[in-house]
Design brief:
Blueprint (H helix, E strand, L loop, with lengths): L10 E10 L6 E11 L4 E6 L5 H8 L7 E6 L2 E2 L5 H8 L2 E4 L11 H11 L4 H14 L15 H13 L5 E5 L7 H18 L2 E6 L2 H7 L2 E6 L2 E7 H6 L4 H11 L7 H4 L8 E10 L4 H12 L2 E12 L2 E12 L1 H13 L3 E5 L5
Parallel strand pairs: 3-8, 3-9, 6-7, 7-8
Antiparallel strand pairs: 1-2, 1-4, 4-5, 9-10, 11-13, 11-14, 12-13
Helix pairs in contact: 3-4, 3-5, 4-5, 5-6, 11-12
This protein binds adenosine-5'-triphosphate and magnesium ion.
Magnesium ion binds next to helix 1.
Length: about 350
């Protein structure tokens, strides 16, 4: 198989395994995870609690050492570095935490400058960097405030500025918005996207919320029990989820295509005819009503629109419609093929899943 060509990945994880050994049987937090994150991407990792997301993220900057597998960041295989080389490599990787982890005895400016102090950067340079970062995260007027005087969103802005202090090219975010209300979450996600654009960063972001993925990510990997069970462009994963777990995640955000209880209310097919539930996905503007009525005429079918909605992921609009098709089985198959020929993505929904 040939790899798609393009720039080398900013982050490449190959066959990562990480076990925690306690008294009982060892727990495989990572069970052979491989992932490539392209430069400039906001890449999401989503999964339920305990799926292994934080373990994975900590393996990228080797806060956690994998038992086996390779981690390559910006072309450097970090799993081969000794401690001092690793410390230098870590400066190229910023990290943002769920609970901000700010020093309560230091001001906003003092918190942002802290990693630069640790790295031995001279005072004048530190101050210049802080002066650049404050407007970037919208905190010019909070320079001398203490964490206790800040809202959650402001604290996270400090956390982000601190993560950016050493001019990293990769930013890792572990549930960076999970402690925030929905409105503040939106602001912080917008900030993450804007710094990605302005600073040419690659962002690896973990979350248990598919809404966060929808709002901010370009691609996503879904984790379950230490494995990646599905991966792809956010648009594709949302519109055509393959794994049942992914389907559940997606439906939490965009709802079920067929509202629960719908099937029970549908009339039974006439003797000798079939009833099929079809999902029709169209990307971009499309006059689906006209398609439905024409398909009905051409193939002699009874086509009922059971549900429909129009939404957008990123800037890509899409529509999703469920149809109940009644008629002879070959006619339904022909109509499906005809709609596919028009560029629509048509799939059958099993009635027990509807
Ligand atoms: N230091 C540790 N010692 C033992 N087990 C651990 C340790 N850290 C994590 N685990 C276990 O490894 C598994 C994966 O944990 P991890 O923190 O990576 O999950 P997560 O997906 O980040 O979950 P959450 O959404 O709750 O943060 C869990 O079963 C967890 O209990
Ligand atoms: Mg976690």
């Amino acid at each position: 198989m040939s790899e798609p060509s393009g720039p080398p990945p900013a982050i490449s994880l190959q066959a990562l395994v990480r076990e925690y050994r306690g008294r009982g049987t060892p727990l495989r937090a990572l069970d052979g995870v491989s992932l490539d994150v392209a430069p400039g991407e906001v890449f999401g990792i989503v999964g339920r609690s305990g799926a292994g997301k934080s373990t994975l993220l900590r393996c990228v900057n080797l806060l956690e050492r994998p038992d086996s597998g390779r981690v390559t960041v910006l072309g450097q295989e970090v799993t081969r570095l000794d401690e001092s080389a690793l410390r230098a490599a870590r400066r190229g990787i910023g990290m943002v935490f769920q609970h901000f982890n700010l020093l309560s005895s230091r001001t906003v400016a003092g918190n942002i400058a802290f990693p630069l102090e640790i790295a031995g950067i001279p005072r004048a340079e530190r101050e210049a960097r802080v002066a650049e970062l404050l407007p970037l995260v919208g905190l010019e007027d909070r320079r001398n405030h203490y964490p206790a005087q800040l809202s959650g969103g402001q604290k996270q802005r400090v956390g982000i500025a601190r993560a950016l202090a050493s001019r990293p090219r990769v930013l890792l975010c572990d549930e960076a918005t999970s402690a925030l209300d929905p409105e503040t979450t939106e602001e912080i996600l917008a900030l993450i996207r804007s710094i990605r654009d302005r600073l040419d960063l690659t962002v690896l972001l973990i979350t248990h919320e598919m809404a966060v993925v929808k709002a901010v990510c370009d691609r996503v990997a879904v984790m379950e029990a230490g494995k990646v069970i599905e991966e792809g462009r956010v648009f594709d994963v949302f519109t055509r989820p393959a794994h049942p777990t992914t389907r559940r995640f997606v439906s939490e955000v965009i709802g079920h295509v067929v509202p629960p209880g719908t099937v029970a209310q549908l009339p039974a097919p006439n003797p000798g005819e079939e009833r099929r539930l079809l999902q029709v996905l169209f990307a971009g503007p499309s006059s689906t009503r006209a398609v439905v009525s024409e398909a009905s005429r051409r193939f002699g079918l009874d086509l009922n629109i059971v549900s429909g909605r129009i939404d957008a992921i990123g800037r890509e609009p899409y529509g999703l419609m469920a149809l109940a098709a009644y008629g002879p089985s070959p006619a339904i198959a022909e109509a499906t093929a005809w709609m596919r020929g028009l560029g629509l993505d048509v799939s059958e929904i099993a009635e027990d899943l509807a």
